[in-house]
Each structure stands twice: as structure tokens, then as C-alpha cells.
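Reply to dn_fold:

You asked what the input looked like. This is it:
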Amino acid sequence: MIVAAHQPAYLPSLGYFDRIKQCDTFVFLDSVQFENNSFINRNRIKTAIGPQWLTIPVRHKDHLEGTMLTTRIDNTWDWRKKHLRAIEQNYRKAPYFEPNFTKIEQLYRDPHDLLADLCWDHLMFWLAELRITTRIVKLSALPVVARRSDLALDLCRHFGAKRYVSGAGGQGYLEGDAFATAGIDVSFQDDKQPAYAQLYGAFAPYMGIVDAWMNLGHDAGLL
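and this is what came back:
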């Protein structure tokens, strides 16, 4: 059994899905604290003048003191329309724009109040489009309440995992000795992203998944 975990993310990059593909069970960390200026509520698309951020606005009152389960989207302005317009304008010449834009228009019609709920529903959409069948479990549904390294270790124990796949950032906080004592191997994801054909000149890595999806269709899941 191989386990990985990560916070919710808006338009996750290919690396997010690569880690999901590497494991048997992926834990969606929906009950951890919201991180400001992170990829939880924003990501980038490629445009003719360079990368452009698309950010979901959140209500600022107490959002840093709560968890992802209580982080509310600021729906007082039509951010969905703005994001869809940016995607349409910048990917209308992409190979898979015609079949895919109709799908994403429908995805953005679904109303959400909580950021974690939106990220979950969007993740289910992307996994289906990329044909990834890894088991996905919400942290909020599990009897695990630790933090940081202890959280990863307890998740492995809960699922009987023999290996934990971490992002590169995990090297800064995972306690390797504790995993070794528990008989669990830890591997760190290679952060290098494979190149693929994009619009607008030289390849720009680490764009949100919509970039690879518009350019490659379902095959984006094979990268």
C-alpha cells in the first residue's frame, strides 16, 4: 500500500496528479488550515504575454484561524465568469478547446460556498478527464488528527501503508527516523515537469491542469 496526501488545490498542476498516480490511496487534506498566497485557491494559465494567475477570492474574516472546512468563497462578485473568460480567450486556439470548453463551462455553473467543496468537486472532474482511478479519501472522514510529519505517519499507519510519497517540500519537515522505525519507506516526488506542446512559444512549466488538458486532452493524464 502506497499513500500520499495534499491540501486541496484549484486547477492543480501536473505534479499534483503525478503524485496521485503514484499511490494506491490519496488523502485530500480538507481539514487542515488554509494557507494564504498558496495554490489552494489559485493557479496559473499560459497567455500570449506570460503566465496569468486565476484566484478564487475567499472571505477574509477569520479565514486564517479556521480550517479548509470553514474557508468560504467570496461570491459577492462573479469570479467564475472572469476565470472562464480568461480560459476561453487564451485557449480558443488549443487543439482540444472545442470539446473541452463546454465541459468546463458546466463545471463552473455549480455553486459552492466552501472552498474545500469546490476543490473536491473540481478534483473529481479532473480525475475523470485524466482517467486516473486512484482511491481518494477526505481527511475529514478519517479518525486522524495529527499535524505535519505526525499526520503523514498516522495516515500511513491507518491504511497499513509501506510507503509514503511526499512532495519535495516534505524533506524539510518529515521525520525520517519515525517512518523508518514504523517500517515505512518515504520517497520524494521529482518536481521536474515533462514538456508538452503549448501555445505561445517556449514551454512554460507548472501551469494549472487546464493548460495541459486544453493542449493534450485526455492524454494529459499520461504525462
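The chain has a mean pLDDT of 93.
Hope that clears it up.
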